[in-house]
Amino acid sequence: MLKGLIGKKIGMTQIFDEQGIAFTVTLIEAGPCYVTQIRVPEKEGYSSVQLGFGEVNPKRLTNGELGHLKAKEISPVRFLREFHAKNHGLSVGDKVTVADAFAVGERVDVIGVSKGKGFAGVVKRYHFHGMNATHGTSDRNRAPGSRGSGTTPGRVYKGARSSGHMGVDRVTVQNIKVVMVDAERNLLAINGAVPGGKGSLVMIKESRKQ
Asked: Hey, how many other C-beta atoms are within 10 angstroms of the C-beta on 121?
């Protein structure tokens, strides 16, 4: 079976096991997802399964998206994501639920888009140390300091860490444990934090670093 789902981050809470130990968890509404396309090496050059998540009004989709789904007789879904998989045993139109994909104790990778922080300085963005608070540095406490290098090259190299837009990046949290699977409510409890804010889209995959 395919070890992958699309979901929506609900928020964080804590749950207790039989010994009374508390686990900080992130709740994800994972699935149900529908198989919208299957790619095979003979045609596309690789093996993967495309899943759709989140039923939506057809008016909110483009004609290309609607045509892609209607050709396979699938109801309109808002999000489409691809998961590399072999020997998955799925067909177009199949429904994949959280109980089918994951079990308690498994390790997964969660992919999401981090929260946007706007324009940030180097101390917040890259954890620069900053300068002394004394010895005359009255307004340089959080400045990056000198980054150029003399006559040669006499400029700052491209890609140097500097202040700028922070967040809204694709982030993968690896090898985290599934603590709870609620098949009735399509809920997945993941130990620890995952990228993104409440209501943001996430992809849950089988961990690559078991």
From this structure: 16
The residue assigned the tokens 């400029």 is 155
Domain boundaries of the chain, sorted by first residue: 4-117+171-206, 119-146+158-166
Question: Token pair of 204, please?
Answer: 């849950």
The CA distance from 172 to 95, in Å, is: 25
DSSP codes, 8-60: EEEEEEEEE-TT--EEEEEEEEE--EEEEEEE-TTTTSS-EEEEEEEE--GGG
- Amino acid identity at 49: V
pLDDT tens-digit readout, 131-183: 888 888 888 889 888 887 788 888 888 889 999 999 999 999 999 999 999 99
Q: What is the CATH architecture of 4-117+171-206?
A: Beta Barrel (2.40)
Quote the CA–CA distance of 193 and 170 in Å, as a whole number. Answer: 15
Structure tokens given for 117: 């922080």
Specify the DSSP element, H or E, that contains 143: none
- Looking up tokens 């489409």, which residue turns up? 80
pLDDT per residue over 50-76, tens digit each? 999 988 899 999 999 999 888 888 889
Distance from C-alpha of 122 to C-alpha of 194, rounded to nearest angstrom = 24
Entry field: residues in the chain? 210
Backbone angles phi, psi at 58, to 5 degrees: -55, -25
